[in-house]
Amino acid sequence: MSDNRLAARQIELEVLRYNPETDQEPKFQNYSVPCINEWCVLDALNYLKDNLDPTLAYRWSCHMQVCGSCGMMINGEPKLACKAMLRDYPDTIRIEPLNHFPIERDLVTVADDFIAKLKRVKPYIIPGEKRVPTEGEYKQTPAQLKRYRQFAMCINCMLCYAACPEYGLQPKFIGPAAISLAHRYNIDSRDGGRDERQEEIATDEGVWECTFVGACSEVCPKHVDPAAALQQVKAASTVDWYLEHFMSWVKK
Amino acid sequence: MAKSNKPIIWGTFAAGGELVSLIMPVLILLTLLAATGHVPAIFGYEKLHAFAAGWFGKLAIFVVLFLSLWSQAHRLRITCFDFGLRADGLVAFVMYILAALGSVATVVYLARI
């Protein structure tokens, strides 16, 4: 029988701490945490909080890459702490709050900007054809589902915003996840709200701020590929532009 | 917030990028082979010359070359920036002038066919 004992490992965590009530600026605090190699970074943080320093603040909920709340910079890269496995990291790991967001406390960031942008793009079905429940469900073929399914996998973890250099430079940029979600509903066969969403995303601070760096797609833990969504939005918006300016009698 | 007019710029850039990656290599190879006579009769020099002499052929060749030059000028400009050449105004001027000269040359040559 194989040896199933888990390997113990001592990990040095360099955690960026910031308490707005007492600190002038964030600074690193080092902890030596007894870990097991099969743990993820979130397990190490939980051990740290339970046994070494209960004052450390960070967000997490599901521990299984579904809730999207434990996003943080791990050795300089935006990652879900529950998806970053210790076996993939050296013995010293640097943990910081997500880039491009203000720090609320320690590893907790203020997500208000993203939430406001999410609301603006109306990421929900705006029915194209109004029906009452007695008329039955809205039907959709597997092919129609396949068009948008990938973009529906977004868990709003904001790793793409932390990775996007354009968002860092232009905080007004609506950004990868919000535009991808707008696109997800725009191409849903049951939806009729594209015109409303285009007013937000076919703008200078919408999809046209994107320069197709592609970092969003590299860090996305759910393989949404936001860069592809934004390119599709650009192509569709370009067709719109020509129709609106030269063939306004053609229905989009 | 008003909708953006960037589709004019991006649309031509994207169209040029598609042409350069999908069509230009074929055209370069085809004209090279046609010039040296190593093509089947249907792509012979006379046939291609006749195509380029018609107004549709002229328009098609101009559109392909103009869009390709414009998109590659823009791409080289961005590439220079990425490689650390940060005199963006000067680089942009040189690149776009080269693309414009190429487009004018295309018109001149097409007019002489």
Unreliable sequence segments of chain B? none
**What is the total number of structural domains of chain A?**
2
Shape of chain A: elongated
Beta-strand segment tally of chain B: 0
What composes the largest sheet of chain A? 5 strands, mixed
Strand-pairing-aware structural class of chain A: alpha+beta
Beta-strand level of the residues of chain B, as a percent range? Answer: under 5%
Question: What would you call the shape of chain B?
Answer: elongated
The CATH superfamily title of the largest domain in chain A: Alpha-helical ferredoxin
Distance between the termini of chain A: 65 Å
pLDDT average of chain B, as an integer?
93
Description:
The complex is a heterodimer of chains A (252) and B (113). With 252 residues, chain A is an alpha+beta fold. Chain A has 2 domains: 8-109, Beta-grasp domain (Ubiquitin-like (UB roll)), CATH 3.10.20.30; 112-246, Orthogonal Bundle (Fumarate Reductase Iron-sulfur Protein, Chain B, domain 2), CATH 1.10.1060. Chain A is built from 9 helices and 7 strands; from the N terminus they run ββαβββββαααααααα. In chain A, the strands form 2 sheets. Chain A has a 5-stranded mixed beta sheet with strand order 2-1-5-3-4. A two-stranded antiparallel ribbon of chain A has the order 6-7. In chain A, strand 3 and strand 4 form a beta hairpin. Chain A starts with 7 loop residues before the first strand and ends in a 6-residue tail after the last helix. The model of chain A has no long low-confidence stretch (mean pLDDT 95). With 113 residues, chain B is mostly helical. Helices cover 81% and strands 0% of the residues of chain B. In chain B, helix 1 (7-22) crosses helix 4 and helix 4 runs antiparallel to helix 5 (88-112). Chain B starts with 6 loop residues before the first helix and ends with a helix. At the A-B interface, helix 7 and helix 9 of A face helix 1 of B.
